[in-house]
Every structure is written in structure tokens, then in C-alpha cells.
Amino acid sequence: MIGLTTYLEQAKQGVWDVRAAFLPQVYFDSVTSSGGIAVLLPPQPEPEIAADAVLDGLDGLILTGGLDVQPELYGAERHPLTDAARPDRDAWELALFRGAEERRLPVLAICRGLQLVNVARGGTLHQHLPEALGTERFRVGGGVFATNDVMVDEGSRLARLVGPGALAVHSYHHQGVDRLGDGLVATAHTDDGLVQAFESDGEGYVLGVQWHPEQNQEDRRLFAGLVAEASVYAAREVPTA
Question: Does pTM surpass 0.90?
């Protein structure tokens, strides 16, 4: 059972134009084709209480892509080009991630998800990479994913899934890791030095990538890796009182 966080946005369907929870199908297709069962997790009004209840029924968690994490959460002033705050989603995903860590529930964090995990671990973000790095290479706009080469570190958990060395990935982001959060180890970079992936240095399974693996339908190794870890988690012996 793999939980995936969702958007909560204005959406149209037929005659209806309402606020709704949704997630692109490629995300849950990536889970189900890897042998998992996808469970969608929209923001909740009481995130801590809801997270405790939800996580007890899951074997893995995916923090999906989306709009920018609030800079106030890492003590930064808001950049003019930072997305409008989505406190409901930030609070929900922080509660889910912290609850997952307590349970050692396997976590895959994608794009915004990587940024949220970094903030949850006390790290900071570059709010606009074109200013920080002088390049638009990671978000060309218009709903078109850019292709970038990242270098995956040998010996990392990520390398065991996709192999070490150069890897072409699909990018769509204008923010990125500045200061790395506590207990996280960078395992992939682009040639400009930007962190493109990290993992936890502890015993739990936390893998974050700055790109969008769900967009590469011919290569779902990261999802297969999470489902494999979730299977181990599901089969664990739970102590009885």
C-alpha cells in the first residue's frame, strides 16, 4: 500500500469548476506497474491526527511534485517569483513525513517532495535558480519537461537502482537545495553543483530526487525500489503488547 500526496486545486470537469484533489495518472501508474497499490492522500484539515491514522495503513509514502514550499518554513524572506503559499499542503506533507520517519516507513520524495524533506530536516532552498545559478535549464516552461544529465554517486542507494554515473532525467523546477538538511547525504549532482538527489544516512529508507521519474514510463526503477522496500516493511514482525 503506497500513499501518494496530491494537489488540492481548482479543477474543471464537464460543467463543474470546483476545488478538487487530483494527481497526474503517471504517478499512480508508476506505482501499480511496479506491483504496489496506489492510495491518494489529499491535504487534511487536522494534519497530525490524520497522518497518524493514515500512515498506520501504509507500507510506503511518495511525496509528489507541485508548487513551492513556503520559504517561511526555513526562515527566508519570500522571493517575488516564489509560488503563493499552500500552507494546507505543506502542513499535511510535513506531518506525513515526520510520521513516516517515526515508523521508518519507506519514503520516495519527488521534486517538491525532495525540497520539503530537505526543509523538514532543517535545510534551506534556493528560491529561484536562474538567479542563484544563472540558468533556466531546469524549467523551460509551457508544461514541457527539460532533459538534464545528472551524475549519480557510486555506492549510493540511488546507484543500486539506476546505476552510477551519468543519467538523463526530466526536470521541471525553479527551486533547489541550498543548505542540505541534517542526516541527508547528496548522491547526485548536475555539473553546476546543484544537488539532484539525496538519501538518509540513517537506517530508514528516504530517497529524494529533484527530477520527475514518473515522466519516464520506460524506466520506473525508483518506484520499483520503493515498492520493494515497502514489501519488506509490510512483512516485518510487529511486536505485540
Answer: yes
